[in-house]
């Protein structure tokens, strides 16, 4: 007799999952957003979560598990309330990312994929965050904070721990990795607080870097450096500007 998979999703999330699957003419096409939705429940994708996705989509657990272990944004172990990622690939490493990661690891008392004792932050190093012009890059729940030196990264993490997440280089501050997972599932608003209007201004010219201003007067005075703003940090020894 085949055992039914245990219910991982709450009744509300199960309804959302079924509505999500109904969007697609071929149900297996809903697997990626459905996995994000499973992460909303417990902050990771458990074996039972894999089984429930398989049952919803008519797939095998092996098929679902293969996808869940291929993409790094799907986590098989529980996360903290916020996920802090430090790119340590080549472009970021030569701009000081390893020191950023080492200082954060020391400050938080955890290593790669470790979660602080209070459950506030999971720290990881990332192979590439696709934003080399803003190196070194730190993300909080997949939102970029660019060109950070170690002291600025520590300030950022202290703000996150205190529950006062500052605006990222572009966009809106995160309210937690589970909220982000719901947005990635396509079931969250474009901004987590729809009634809070924030104006976004972008300026650029051929001889100036793109700069952004998403000013929200309620969000303290943390201003992450913008790409190309060399005044915010020293270049590593031996690096020269050929422009």
CATH level-1 class of the largest domain: Alpha Beta
Distance between the termini: 70 Å
Total helices: the number is 8
Give the C-alpha Rg.
20 Å
CATH topology of the largest domain: Glutaredoxin
CATH superfamily of the largest domain: Glutaredoxin
Annotation, overall tally of beta strands = 7
Oligomer: single chain
Please indicate the count of domains: 2
CATH architecture of the largest domain: 3-Layer(aba) Sandwich
Low-confidence stretches: 194-220
Major beta sheet, specifics?
Answer: 5 strands, mixed
Strand content: 5-15%
- Name the average pLDDT: 82
Taken from the alpha-carbon principal axes, the silhouette is elongated
Helix content: 25-40%
Give me the strand/helix succession: HHHHEHHEEEEHHEE
What structural keywords apply?
single chain, 243 residues, alpha+beta, Arc Repressor Mutant, subunit A, Glutaredoxin, 2 domains, five-stranded mixed sheet, two-stranded antiparallel ribbon, 7 strands, 33% helix
Q: Can you walk through the features of this model?
A:
This protein is α+β, with helices and mostly antiparallel strands. It has 2 domains: 11-70, Arc Repressor Mutant, subunit A; 82-190 and 197-232, 3-Layer(aba) Sandwich (Glutaredoxin), CATH 3.40.30.10. It is 33% helix and 13% strand. The chain is built from 8 helices and 7 strands, in the order H-H-H-H-E-H-H-E-E-E-E-H-H-E-E. The chain has helices at 11-22, 31-42, 47-57, 61-70, 90-93, 97-108, 150-161, 177-184, and strands at residues 82-87, 114-115, 121-126, 138-140, 143-145, 201-205, 208-213. Strands 2-3-1-4-5 form a 5-stranded mixed sheet, covered by helices on one side. Strands 6-7 form a two-stranded antiparallel ribbon. It is elongated and about 50 Å long. The termini are far apart.
């Amino acid at each position: 007799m085949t055992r039914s998979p245990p219910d991982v999703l709450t009744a509300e999330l199960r309804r959302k999952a079924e509505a999500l699957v109904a969007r697609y003419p071929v149900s297996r096409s809903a697997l990626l957003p459905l996995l994000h939705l499973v992460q909303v429940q417990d902050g990771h994708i458990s074996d039972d979560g894999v089984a429930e996705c398989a049952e919803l989509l008519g797939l095998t657990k092996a098929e679902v598990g293969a996808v869940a272990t291929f993409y790094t944004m799907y986590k098989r172990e529980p996360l903290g309330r916020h996920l802090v990622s430090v790119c340590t690939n080549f472009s970021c490493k030569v701009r000081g990312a390893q020191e950023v990661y080492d200082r954060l690891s020391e400050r938080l008392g955890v290593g790669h994929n470790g979660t602080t004792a209070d459950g506030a932050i999971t720290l990881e190093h990332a192979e590439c965050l696709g934003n080399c012009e803003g190196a070194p890059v730190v993300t909080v729940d997949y939102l970029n904070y660019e060109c950070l030196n170690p002291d600025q990264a520590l300030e950022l993490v202290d703000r996150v721990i205190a529950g006062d997440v500052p605006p990222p280089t572009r966009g809106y501050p995160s309210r937690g990795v589970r909220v982000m997972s719901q947005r990635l599932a396509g079931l969250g608003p474009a901004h987590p607080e729809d009634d809070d209007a924030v104006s976004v201004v972008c300026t650029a010219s051929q001889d100036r870097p793109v700069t952004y201003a998403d000013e929200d007067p309620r969000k303290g005075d943390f201003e992450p450096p913008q790409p190309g703003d060399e005044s915010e940090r020293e270049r590593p020894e031996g690096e020269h500007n050929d422009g």
